[in-house]
Amino acid sequence: MGLRSRNKVTPNFNMSSMTDIVFLLLIFFMLTSTLVSPNALKLLLPSSKAKTLEKQTISISITKDIQFYINENPVSENTIEGELKLLINKDQEPAIILHTDKSVAIEHVVKVMDIAYRNKYKIVLATTPN
To answer: Where are the beta strands (DSSP E) in the chain?
Structure first.
């Protein structure tokens, strides 16, 4: 007499849920790796709400005629770093506010930001509030 069980267990393993998890992880790591930029300049971006800084700040302005000013004093492009070092000599944590005209080429803005990055100064790019 052949007694067989009617409920057979299949030895197959369903991999569809495992592949879904692997693809989700792959997409997650692909998206997050594009957001990481190790060689970027670190900037403190201003918010739209008005804030007052407790510390003394230095203002650098670039006009549409590519003229540089530090605290309303005209400075040549090549002497910006030396002038900043003289002004920030005593301050422990210097902060710089960068005011630029909309028509100024980005290379001039990046040059000032690079000076701040090399000397480990905090720099804020000034914008108009909404």
So the answer is: 57-62, 68-70, 73-75, 95-100, 122-125
